[in-house]
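Reminder to self: C-alpha cells first, then the designed residues, so the page reads top to bottom the way the pipeline ran.
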C-alpha cells in the first residue's frame, strides 16, 4: 500500500476515533460535575441562539463539528506532526493545547460563542473542560494515527532531507 495513502488513512481513522471520543465526553461531562457543552448546538446556532437538539440546525452544527474533528484537524496534525516533540501521546498533548488556544480562545471569542451559557455561568469549569477535552482529543488522535500507521519522517543525519 502506498505510504501517502496509509498516512491519510491513519489520519482519518485517528480523527474519527478522537471525534467520537470527544463527543461522548462532551455529553457525559455533566455526570462528572462539568457544565454541559453541546458543540453541535453551539455551531448550529452561532448566529442566533443554540440550536435545539436533533433539529436541522443541530445536525448541520454536528456535521461541521465532525468534519472539523475527523477530517481537517487530522490532516493538519499529520502535516505538522514532524515538528511536534516527543512520543505520540506527547505530540497529542501539544496538538490539543494548540487546538485549545486556537479554537477555544481565538475562534470562540471572535464568534461570540464564549459569551453565551455555559461559558458565562461557569467560566472556570467551562475553560477547564474545554482544555481537557482538547487535550484528550489530541492524545486520542495522535495515538490513533500512530497505531494506524503514520510515522514521523526519518531524515538523514547529514542534513539533507531524503
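Designed residues (162 positions):
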Amino acid at each position: 500500500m502506498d505510504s501517502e495513502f496509509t498516512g491519510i488513512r491513519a489520519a482519518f481513522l485517528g480523527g474519527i476515533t478522537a471525534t467520537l471520543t470527544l463527543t461522548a465526553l462532551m455529553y457525559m461531562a455533566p455526570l462528572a460535575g462539568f457544565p454541559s457543552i453541546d458543540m453541535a448546538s453551539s455551531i448550529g446556532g452561532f448566529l442566533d441562539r443554540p440550536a435545539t437538539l436533533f433539529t436541522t440546525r443541530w445536525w448541520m452544527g454536528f456535521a461541521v463539528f465532525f468534519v472539523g474533528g475527523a477530517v481537517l484537524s487530522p490532516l493538519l496534525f499529520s502535516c505538522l506532526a514532524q515538528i511536534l516533540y516527543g512520543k505520540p501521546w506527547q505530540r497529542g498533548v501539544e496538538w490539543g493545547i494548540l487546538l485549545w488556544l486556537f479554537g477555544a480562545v481565538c475562534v470562540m471569542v471572535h464568534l461570540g460563542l464564549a459569551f453565551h451559557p455555559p461559558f458565562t455561568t461557569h467560566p472556570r469549569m467551562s475553560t477547564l473542560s474545554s482544555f481537557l477535552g482538547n487535550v484528550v482529543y489530541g492524545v486520542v488522535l495522535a495515538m490513533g494515527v500512530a497505531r494506524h500507521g503514520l510515522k514521523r519522517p526519518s531524515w538523514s543525519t547529514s542534513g539533507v532531507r531524503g
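The chain has five helices and no strands.
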